[in-house]
Each structure stands twice: as structure tokens, then as C-alpha cells.
Backbone:
């Protein structure tokens, strides 16, 4: 008669064990799912783009790449779970504060080169998943980035961000709008918060904050130009939703546009890994943001016909060899030697569009020559979901005058554009573009600040004496 309680105990024990196992299984299933979700958020938010290691073989998120700004270099730090060098000791709240408010655990302010101005509306659920992913699945890098942030005075005083944050930092969280479809709400969240398109595509005011009323209408970006992507004729009104998805996923759209420079990086590290549903949601949102009209192209009164005699110039000679000892600034000659082998004598490109046409190319026909000049200078290297593309950089072979003349040739002949770029302007783009207002007038601003302070003290003194 004693067997029964024994059996009962045994079955209870077994049940307890299996229940515990089942529970453990659900916990680890849900942690795995959370880690997967956090990983996807890190990709959509492109955290590794800035927090990547300075050398190509380093550990992801180990930091060290310099964000070059006119005020100096800012280094995005190590955000691996290393306790000594990374964020291993951050609580989830401290992590949320760094990502959404740009505030470090010790209270110091981050510079807005870290896009907390976009991430501020990240949902609690996404911050949680991102935290779990970084803490539990990313390999700790137990070393500090070699380079240090190095800004000129007064930008090296982090306290100045306090005033800037007061003016420009929002603390509103993202909320779905009842009057928008599920797809548009998702698209808005991705475009505005995670993928932070506005940090590159929105023009900035004198204080370098985004001009909200001109959202996504185009902005210079370290020599490059992130074009107007609002649905205006000066933007991308003629792109369908599918066009935008194709461009984000592959980095090129036949007979329209290619992604070079910073956009190529965003495609390579982030957009090409996003789901079709998410890409469509972003494209649907972009298609209906307020249209902003900006400068359109100025066409030459008489577009230059493509010269028929080009073929006779230097065809057949070794292009690199000719370039090496050529000091010519004849645009046609330079084009023939440096470009025609891939883009065709008449800029027609190849039939499969692997070498794109320059006659139907937004970098060529844009109001400014920035992206053409920068593509020639830096070349294009991009892995996308369908291919790896590469155009050589010509910064070693061509000087400013040569880059200016080949650019002007391409713009005249293939797009009928009549605004020439000068060698000095090419040099300026190669240096990272024009200095923002705040830097150019910094000394005047500081002098003005000092005058106001003196006037104030003088007023106080008069008041005190009276
Ligand atoms: C456009 C570049 C950029 C992107 C994208 C970016 N960061 Fe940063 N982040 C920075 C820079 C630059 C700093 C340092 C700013 C400073 O020193 O004031 C920084 C600082 C931080 C810090 C504080 C610790 C440290 O390294 O200084 C954390 C935590 C952080 N980022 C997390 C993230 C996460 C998580 C993501 C993705 C959701 C992300 N960042 C995306 C540029 C970026
Ligand atoms: C890191 C900066 C950066 C980010 C982030 C970024 N872009 Fe871009 N984008 C650029 C630059 C620069 C170009 C120009 C590339 C070129 O012509 O080679 C560009 C080009 C484009 C174009 C082609 C426009 C044209 O006229 O040729 C589209 C469309 C576009 N971006 C959409 C987006 C969307 C949507 C997002 C967010 C999901 C986004 N971009 C995020 C920098 C950025
Ligand atoms: C070895 C082949 C090769 C040579 C030489 C070459 N290109 Fe390219 N070019 C490419 C490839 C590949 C792309 C990118 C295609 C893509 O993104 O799908 C490209 C893209 C471009 C773009 C589009 C850039 C953008 O931002 O959208 C322009 C403009 C351009 N090339 C102009 C030139 C000019 C001008 C020269 C000569 C100075 C030149 N290329 C030489 C292969 C070449």
C-alpha cells in the first residue's frame, strides 16, 4: 500500500521537472526572440555604422570611427557589453537615457552626432530589445577606441549642449496615430525614429538643428548632398513606391539613381537587411510627407550635343597610363580616358545597367555637382542585396582642375546643365563642404556674446550705483 504515495510523489516530481523545463524553454525562446528583435532594431537604426571599429576586422560595436565635423572629430564609443570599456555596467535606464536623451550615466551630455534627436521617440519595447541584444549577444570588446573625440573650443565644453538640448531636444515618445493605417504608422516610425533619414536629408539651421518645416528636403553632408526626397517635382515625386523600395534595397534604380557615399553605407549596413514589409512601409510614408519645393536644375539654353568626334580622341590607349602623365584639363579627353570604358563614349552605360547611364542620372542632373564630384573623387563601393558594385576613386590621378573639367563636361553634355563648378569648389567639397554658419561666424558670435555680457555688467553696475 506504500507504493501509491511513492508513485504520486514520483509523478508529481516528474511533472514538476517537465513543467520547469517547459518554463525554461519558454523563457529562453522569448529571450531568443527578444535578441533577434533587438538585432533587427540595431540594423534598422544602423548603430554599427557609427559605432563600428576603426579597422575592418575589428569587433562590431567596438567604436573608433571618427565622425568628421567642421568643429573637429567626434568618436562614437565602444557600445559592446565590456564592463571596463563599453556599456557593460549600464542599467537599462542608463542605456535608454544615452540613446533617447543623449545623457551619459555620469550626467554628461552627448553631442547630437549621436542621433538621439531621432531616437528620442523610440518605444520602450524597442529600447528593451536593443538593450538585451547588446548586453547578451554582442561580444565584449575589452579595449577603448584608439582615437579620442577632439573638438575645438567652445565645442569641447559638453555643457553647451545643455542649452542646445533645451531648445532642440524633444522627449515625446512615438505613438500610433488613429487616422493613419498600420503601414503608414510603421513607415513613420521607421523613417523618423529608427532609420533617422532626416539626420542626413533635412537642412539645418544656424545652430545646426534640423529645420522641421523643411523636413527631408535636402541637405549638404560632408561634401556630398543628400537630395530632396519629398514628393515634389524638385524631389522624388516621379518615383513609385516600388522604385523607392528597389533603391533602398539594392542602392540603384535603373536609369535614375545610384547610392554612393553615405547613402551607399546606409544601404550596405542597414536598408538591404530590412524586410520587404518595412521597406514598403518607409516608401509609403515618404510618398505622402509634405512636398517641399527646392531649387531645380538650370538647363543650358542650348544643350551641348554629345560630340561625335570623341571616338577619335584617344580611344584604344591605356586609360590609367594616359591619366598618369596627363595634365590636360580638356574635359572630353579626360572623360574618354577615365570614364568611357565603363560608362560608354556617349554616357549611355551598359545595357544591364551595371555600369549606369550618365545621361539619365540624378547625380549628374542634380542642381549641384556635389555627388558627381564626390563619386569621382572617392569612387563608389557598395554591397547591396543583388550585387557588389565598385567605381574606382580618382583622387590620386586627377587634380581639382581636372575633376572640375570632367564634371563640367559630363554635366554639359549628358544633362544640358550650364552651371560650372570651379577647381576651388572641388577642393572645398573634398575638404568636407562649406563650413556651417555657426563656425564661419564663430569669432563674431563670441565677440557679440562678450559685448552683450559687458553691456549687461555695465547695466548692473549703473543700477547698483543708483
Ligand atoms: C550617426 C552616428 C551614430 C549612430 C547611427 C549611433 N550612434 Fe551612438 N554615438 C555616436 C557618437 C558620435 C557618440 C559619442 C558622442 C559624444 O561623445 O558626445 C555616441 C554615443 C553613444 C553612447 C554613449 C557611449 C559612448 O560610446 O559614448 C551609446 C550608449 C550609444 N551611442 C548607443 C547607440 C545605439 C544603441 C545606437 C543605435 C540605436 C547608436 N548609438 C547609433 C554616434 C552614433
Ligand atoms: C547617412 C546619411 C543618409 C541617411 C541616413 C539616409 N540617406 Fe538617403 N541619401 C543620402 C545621400 C548622400 C544621397 C545621395 C547619394 C547619391 O546620389 O549617390 C541619398 C540619396 C537618397 C535617395 C535618392 C534621391 C535622388 O534624388 O537620387 C533616396 C530616395 C533616399 N536617399 C532615401 C532615403 C531614405 C528613405 C532614408 C531613410 C530610410 C535615407 N535616405 C537615409 C544620405 C542619407
Ligand atoms: C571601372 C568602371 C568605372 C569607371 C572607370 C567609372 N565609373 Fe562611374 N560608376 C561605375 C559604377 C559601377 C557605378 C555605380 C553603379 C551602381 O551604383 O549601381 C558608377 C556610378 C557613377 C555615377 C553615379 C553616382 C551617384 O552618386 O549616383 C556617376 C555620376 C559616375 N559613375 C560618373 C563617372 C565619371 C565621371 C567617371 C570618370 C571620371 C567614372 N564614373 C568612371 C563604374 C565606373
Residues:
Amino acid at each position: 500500500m506504500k507504493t501509491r504515495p511513492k508513485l504520486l510523489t514520483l509523478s508529481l516530481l516528474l511533472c514538476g521537472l517537465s513543467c520547469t523545463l517547459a518554463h525554461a524553454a519558454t523563457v529562453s525562446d522569448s529571450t531568443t526572440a527578444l535578441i533577434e528583435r533587438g538585432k533587427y532594431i540595431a540594423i534598422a537604426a544602423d548603430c554599427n555604422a557609427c559605432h563600428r571599429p576603426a579597422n575592418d576586422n575589428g569587433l562590431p560595436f567596438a567604436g573608433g570611427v571618427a565622425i568628421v565635423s567642421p568643429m573637429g572629430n567626434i568618436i562614437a564609443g565602444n557600445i559592446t557589453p565590456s564592463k571596463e570599456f563599453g556599456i557593460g555596467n549600464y542599467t537599462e535606464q542608463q542605456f535608454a537615457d544615452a540613446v533617447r536623451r543623449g545623457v551619459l550615466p555620469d550626467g554628461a551630455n552627448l553631442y547630437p552626432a549621436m542621433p538621439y534627436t531621432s531616437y528620442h521617440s523610440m518605444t520602450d519595447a524597442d529600447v528593451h530589445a536593443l538593450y538585451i541584444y547588446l548586453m547578451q549577444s554582442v561580444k565584449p570588446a575589452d579595449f577603448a577606441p584608439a582615437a579620442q573625440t577632439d573638438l575645438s573650443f567652445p565645442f569641447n565644453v559638453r555643457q553647451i549642449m545643455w542649452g542646445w538640448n533645451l531648445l532642440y531636444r524633444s522627449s515625446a515618445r512615438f505613438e500610433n496615430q488613429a487616422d493613419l493605417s498600420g503601414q503608414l504608422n510603421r513607415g513613420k516610425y521607421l523613417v523618423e525614429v529608427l532609420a533617422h533619414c532626416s539626420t542626413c536629408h533635412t537642412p539645418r539651421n544656424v545652430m545646426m538643428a534640423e529645420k522641421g518645416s523643411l523636413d527631408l528636403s535636402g541637405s549638404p553632408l560632408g561634401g556630398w548632398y543628400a537630395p530632396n526626397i519629398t514628393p515634389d517635382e524638385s524631389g522624388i515625386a516621379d518615383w513609385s513606391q516600388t522604385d523607392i523600395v528597389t533603391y533602398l534595397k539594392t542602392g540603384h534604380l535603373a536609369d535614375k539613381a545610384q547610392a554612393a557615399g553615405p547613402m551607399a553605407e546606409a544601404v550596405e549596413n542597414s536598408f538591404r537587411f530590412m524586410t520587404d514589409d518595412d521597406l514598403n512601409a518607409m516608401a509609403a510614408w515618404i510618398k505622402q510627407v509634405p512636398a517641399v519645393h527646392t531649387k531645380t536644375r538650370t538647363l543650358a539654353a542650348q544643350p551641348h550635343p554629345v560630340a561625335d568626334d570623341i571616338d577619335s580622341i584617344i580611344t584604344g590607349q591605356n586609360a590609367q597610363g594616359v591619366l598618369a602623365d596627363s595634365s590636360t584639363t580638356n574635359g572630353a579627353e579626360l572623360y574618354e580616358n577615365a570614364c568611357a570604358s565603363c560608362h560608354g563614349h556617349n554616357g549611355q552605360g551598359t545595357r544591364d545597367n551595371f555600369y549606369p547611364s550618365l545621361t539619365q542620372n540624378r547625380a549628374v542632373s542634380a542642381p549641384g555637382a556635389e555627388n558627381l564630384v564626390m563619386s569621382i573623387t572617392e569612387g563608389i563601393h557598395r554591397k547591396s542585396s543583388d550585387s557588389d558594385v565598385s567605381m574606382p576613386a580618382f583622387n590620386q590621378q586627377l587634380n581639382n582642375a581636372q575633376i572640375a573639367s570632367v564634371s563640367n563636361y559630363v554635366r554639359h553634355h549628358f544633362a544640358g546643365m550650364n552651371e560650372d563648378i570651379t577647381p576651388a569648389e572641388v577642393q572645398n567639397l573634398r575638404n568636407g563642404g562649406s563650413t556651417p554658419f555657426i563656425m564661419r561666424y564663430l569669432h563674431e558670435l563670441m565677440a557679440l556674446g562678450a559685448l552683450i555680457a559687458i553691456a549687461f555688467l555695465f547695466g548692473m553696475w549703473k543700477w547698483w550705483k543708483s
The radius of gyration is 27 Å. Strands lie at 66-69, 72-75, 150-151, 219-221, 224-226, 252-253, 257-258, 380-383, 388-391. Residues 440-466 form one domain. The mean pLDDT is 87.
